[in-house]
Amino acid sequence: MPKALVTGGAGFIGSHVVDLLLEKGYEVVIVDNISSGSIKNIDNRAKFYQADILSDAIGTIFSAEKPDYVFHLASQISVSKSLREPMYDANMNILGSISIMEACVKHGVKKLVFSSTGGALYGDPKRIPCDEKTEILPLCPYGVAKFCVEQYLSYYYRVHGLNYISLRYSNVYGPRQNPFGEAGVVAIFAKKLLKKEIPTINGDGAQTRDFVYVSDVARANLLAAEGSASGVSINIATGKETSVNEIFEKLEKNIKSGIKLKHAPGIKGEVRRISLDCSLANRLLGWKPKVDIDEGIKRTVDFFREEE
Ligand SMILES: NC(=O)c1ccc[n+]([C@@H]2O[C@H](COP(=O)([O-])OP(=O)(O)OC[C@H]3O[C@@H](n4cnc5c(N)ncnc54)[C@H](O)[C@@H]3O)[C@@H](O)[C@H]2O)c1
Predict the structure, then answer these.
(1) From its phi and psi, is residue 7 left (phi > 0), alpha (psi between -120 and 50) or beta?
(2) Is the pLDDT of residue 31 over 90?
(3) The pTM is what?
(4) Which residues contact ligand 1 via a Cβ below 6 A?
(5) Where in the chain are the domains?
(6) Is 164 a known active-site residue?
(7) How far away, in angstroms, is 261 Cα from ligand 1 center?
(8) pLDDT tens for residues 225-274?
């Protein structure tokens, strides 16, 4: 039975990666410091280490567990925190990732799958959907750090032979996303509408994002680990734009709260429109999104409704 180590496995996306690995018969080890994740997301069939990716414990855990595959999702995920505290972000997201890459090389890991971003890499693109050749023009330290890790991955691949795939996600949504975070508009609005609170949209709500459902993202992680492609960064998205206003309407169709949106001033520098071309994922991984936005929103609302 292959063994997988998942950093950030107590978080939103990481816990879905763990679910899928367990379903496919992998032995799973989770490393998470529970800074933004939750103990209740941890499946008791997985072995859990509460540890920071920057700590010396990482070497000990890799020596003891000898994982075949590593899925590296642990990260500080706040764009605004990265703007306020770029050194904190770089420490967690660049040095923390180097710690994982070093451990992978030292312990002969077969492949590392890294959770990167597409949404925060390409800036405010002139042409959409953006493919992977689009110029990298991040507008926040979080995006710079993710791209920096991709450069390190490429170095470890070329010089140390570490196999990897970097997955550049668009806006991921679905069950277990933190509804109290700054990002994750589907979770935030769903929770508010179910509680009969008024959600606020920054700006006119016509800004678009590419929303990809979390189980599709988990499947991309598994395909990336098991496939033969290596040494490459790949968009994981739908290629479709959905506006924030449309998200509200779709949620309201399921929740029927009767609540109207409130508009706040737009955020300066916010990307106006984005979607990512995911044809490379199809070619290299045989991956395509399966859950469309209407079905994904329904499943997400069902999850938050059950939680109420
Ligand atoms: N959610 C999205 O739309 C999105 C988009 C692009 C990329 N990503 C990336 O996907 C990954 C997972 O994001 P998520 O949305 O599930 O966020 P999340 O906050 O739910 O998950 C991150 C997990 O990492 C853990 N963690 C954070 N710092 C750690 C550290 N120093 N040591 C050990 N554990 C630590 C947290 O406790 C949490 O469980 C991240 O790398 C994020 O940058 C997410």
Answers:
(1) beta
(2) yes
(3) 0.98
(4) 7-8, 10-14, 32-37, 52-54, 73-77, 92, 96, 115, 117, 119, 169, 171-172
(5) 3-172+214-237+276-289, 174-208+241-274+294-307
(6) no
(7) 29
(8) 999 999 999 999 999 999 999 999 999 999 999 999 899 998 877 889 99
